[in-house]
């Protein structure tokens, strides 16, 4: 007899499960296209040079210690993160109706925001895109949302955003529903709405009195320019919408395991801010009490020093540039092989991922026969491709599609 008898075994978390399968695989030709983490052309993780430099400076800074940060986090970091996403000239910042709250990477920012909306504001219905990142539903469910619905996002046949159905679904969502939007580089499809489409989305959100909750985990990875990648968020601010924005610095600073994130909040009336912050302090106090300092100090140092910020922008260009090169290489090779189907979507999609259109059976075959690991919905992390394995992967896809 145990308190824990009868606990059913939960299904594995696919992205980590597949990553482990890759790590455990002995075949030397194995390829990892699973988890959304950047790899160099040599297939190894990248510590951004400016991050390394900032870490050395921080290690030598005798004024720093390991005392607790405030519950809401490192103030300089919170401001720098908010400015990164809203833009330094943001009307919301000028009017002092925007603020940041340091959280644990993107997931912690989503969780704190969701728990606040459910527990303090009383919003209980959320909508995520279909398809979406594998963790969205779980976060919102555990945060207290009682209805988690989907809105149409993807037209699988044409491999594009199904904007008419998307707008229609939002038009039919109950008032005060929370709408989770991918700020850029939609995960898993790699296809973002155009500016005209974002305008329609903002319009219906405003008309139906819905609440936009942006998740922007890949700022800089869509176009190589962090400002361009924040266009949708900034447009929504210009439209006078209130919102929260979950930011992650895992990908764009390569700080995956430091759990650096920020929840940027935009409100219409700055009088509500003291109440908001005091209640959010309780949400965070009950979760992680106060956040870790190291990653936030690194991001703060880099974003607030013009030379370091430029070096960071250069690294973003390098990383996103390599992704683009690999997209082109994969498409070119598949087209040269005459692989059945069309492959233009590989270069039309943006960010780390490509939603290849490969079926579940084809994915299984690629794993079993070629030791190429990817997600069952056909999503590949383009960063796992490099000049040494691109021919192998293209040939494997070609043979798999023909078999
Ligand atoms: C991914 O989608 O692969 C990443 O965001 C990693 C994760 O936590 O799922």
UniProtKB/TrEMBL annotation:
SUPFAM superfamilies: PLP-dependent transferases (SSF53383). InterPro entries: Aminotransferase_I/II_large, Asp_trans, NHTrfase_class1_PyrdxlP-BS, PyrdxlP-dep_Trfase, PyrdxlP-dep_Trfase_major, PyrdxlP-dep_Trfase_small. One of its GO terms (biological process) is aspartate biosynthetic process. GO terms for cellular component: cytosol. It holds the Pfam family Aminotran_1_2. Coiled coil: none annotated. Its cofactor is pyridoxal 5'-phosphate. It catalyses: L-aspartate + 2-oxoglutarate = oxaloacetate + L-glutamate. It is an enzyme of class 2 (transferase). The keyword Cell division does not apply. Residues 29-397 form the Aminotransferase class I/classII large domain. Belongs to the class-I pyridoxal-phosphate-dependent aminotransferase family. PANTHER family: ASPARTATE AMINOTRANSFERASE, GLUTAMATE OXALOACETATE TRANSAMINASE 1, ISOFORM B. In eukaryotes there are cytoplasmic, mitochondrial and chloroplastic isozymes. This is Aspartate aminotransferase. It comes from Caenorhabditis auriculariae.
């Amino acid at each position: 007899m145990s308190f824990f008898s009868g606990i059913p075994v939960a299904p594995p978390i696919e992205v980590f499960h597949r990553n482990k399968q890759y790590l455990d695989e002995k075949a030397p030709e194995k390829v990892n296209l699973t988890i959304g983490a950047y790899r160099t052309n040599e297939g190894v993780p990248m510590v951004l040079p400016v991050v390394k430099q900032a870490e050395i400076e921080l290690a030598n800074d005798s004024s720093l210690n390991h005392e607790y940060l405030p519950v809401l986090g490192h103030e300089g970091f919170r401001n720098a993160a908010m400015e990164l996403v809203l833009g330094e000239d943001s009307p919301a910042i000028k009017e002092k109706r925007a603020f940041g709250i340091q959280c644990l990477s993107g997931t912690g920012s989503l969780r704190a925001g969701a728990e606040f909306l459910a527990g303090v504001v009383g919003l209980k219905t959320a909508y995520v895109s279909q398809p979406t990142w594998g963790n969205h539903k779980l976060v919102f469910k555990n945060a207290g949302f009682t209805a988690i619905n989907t809105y149409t996002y993807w037209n699988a046949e044409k491999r594009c955003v199904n904007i008419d159905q998307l707008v229609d679904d939002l038009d039919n969502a109950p008032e005060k529903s929370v709408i989770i939007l991918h700020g850029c580089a939609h995960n898993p499809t790699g296809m973002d709405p155009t500016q005209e489409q974002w305008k329609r989305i903002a319009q219906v959100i405003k008309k139906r009195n819905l609440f936009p909750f942006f998740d922007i985990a890949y700022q800089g990875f869509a176009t190589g320019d962090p400002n361009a990648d924040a266009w949708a968020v900034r447009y929504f601010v210009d439209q006078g919408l209130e919102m929260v924005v979950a930011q992650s610095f895992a990908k764009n600073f390569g700080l995956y395991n430091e759990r650096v994130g920020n929840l940027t909040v935009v409100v219409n009336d700055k009088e509500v801010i003291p109440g908001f912050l005091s209640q959010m302090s309780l949400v965070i106090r009950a979760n992680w009490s106060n956040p870790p300092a190291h990653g936030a100090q690194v991001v703060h140092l880099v974003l607030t020093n013009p030379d370091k910020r430029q070096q960071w922008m250069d690294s973003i260009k390098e990383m996103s540039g390599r992704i683009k090169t690999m997209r082109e290489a994969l498409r070119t090779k598949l087209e040269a092989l005459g692989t059945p189907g069309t492959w233009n979507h590989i270069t039309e999609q943006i960010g780390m991922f490509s939603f290849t259109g490969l079926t579940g059976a084809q994915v299984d075959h690629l794993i079993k026969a070629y030791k190429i690991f990817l997600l069952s919905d056909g999503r590949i992390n383009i960063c796992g491709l490099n000049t040494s394995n691109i021919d192998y992967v293209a040939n494997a896809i070609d043979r798999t599609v023909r078999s």
